[in-house]
Amino acid sequence: MDKLLSLFENADPFKTWWPAIAALVFGLVIIVRTLMSGQRCPNDNQIRDQIVVVTGANSGIGLEIAKALAARGGRIVLACRNMAAAERAARVIKRELECQRLHPTHSIAASDAEYFVEARYLDLRSFESVHRFARRITGEFERIDVLINNAGIIFGPLGARTIDGYELHLQVNYLSHFLLTQLLLPHLQRSPSGGRVVNVTAHAHAAAKIDFDDPLNVGTWAVNFHARDAFAHSKLAVLLATRWLARQMKGTPLTVNCCTPGLVRGTGHLRSSPLMSAISVKLMTLPWRWLFMKNPFEGAQCAIRLATDPKLKNVSGEYFNDCEIAQSSLNGRDIALAKKLYMQTIKELEKVTKLIIEKDIESETLALEMAPQPADAEAENYKVQQQAGPKRPKEGKAKAKQQQLKQQKA
């Protein structure tokens, strides 16, 4: 051992090979890490007082998006299921921005009181929860400037169904965000800046399996996807719906685009992965994940650009990767398939819910809806409802409630 140490101490870097090899390896690692980290958002535009809704913003990519947009002056709504984590995230964002403001070299000039970062309850596993959230947000704000549909799941339980009767990945990643966008469209169109919808998809859309006759995979002969395939299918659906909604909004200031964050570590998505359940696997893959995967800050850059860059004011219906327009898979560019999926989604949602916000609601009921339950209680309620089976709204329920309200007022 002493002989080896002596060899290294007395080595002449110009006469031995190992310093050159070490420098080469170090340089290659830095180059690969830089390339894999992706492009940073190419602008620092302010969005002063713009109202931004970000789903899944209590951690990971959503948290980084919310933090960056709050630093640019936006009024941020964190739409999350875990309210404890969401409220904690809101406090962290405000505290970090205040610390940055106090730093003499930083350009942020707002005070903590001027930072609007608030958490609101949203459970994408339930269409009823989506309606509650939309009613509350449209009641609080006269407009919405940016909607970022970021939340998502992967490696959910095989064959799991939501209380509305849909495959878990399909509803959380696609159907509920589709419904939320439809409900908030009128408010988005009131934005003086034109309104922007940013949907987060994934590279996995390229591997998706989809049937043109049943693009939602909800028919009688629907395939029981593996969790990996279900995730890929839901992300392709996000991309296709983005394409068609942009066509629907053509001629209006509203833009609709989607982006992929790339391969991102530290988001919690891999915690349910069978491969990552073993500690030994986690330890062995740690350096490779650091080298080849983005961190949440890097993964958030593309969505940040789509939400802020004035150069994209007239760009709609596009797929972005690393802050630039990219080419999606062949299915992702199929306009006929996009239309088929969009129309089937509309018909499917009309069977189980409404695509408009019901205004005639008792004040007491609305107050209850606006008060989120603790995360543990919500999880327990979800389990009970899931065991009870899919819930379908009864026909004429809304009319009956309106008649009852009229009788009470009379």
Automatic annotation (TrEMBL):
Transmembrane region(s): 16-36
SUPFAM superfamilies named in the record: NAD(P)-binding Rossmann-fold domains (SSF51735)
Task: State the residue spans of region: Disordered.
Answer: 368-410
User: Residues of the signal sequence?
Assistant: none
Pfam families, per the entry: adh_short
The yes or no answer to whether the keyword Oxidoreductase is present is yes
Q: Which GO terms describe its molecular function?
A: oxidoreductase activity
Q: Which PANTHER family match?
A: PHOSPHATIDYLINOSITOL-GLYCAN BIOSYNTHESIS CLASS F PROTEIN (PTHR43157:SF31), PHOSPHATIDYLINOSITOL-GLYCAN BIOSYNTHESIS CLASS F PROTEIN-RELATED (PTHR43157)
- Please report which protein family the annotation says this sequence is part of: Belongs to the short-chain dehydrogenases/reductases (SDR) family.
Instruction: Report the protein name in the record.
Output: Retinol dehydrogenase 13
| Organism per entry | Ceratitis capitata (Mediterranean fruit fly)
| Organism taxonomic ancestry | Eukaryota, Metazoa, Ecdysozoa, Arthropoda, Hexapoda
Give the gene name: RDH13
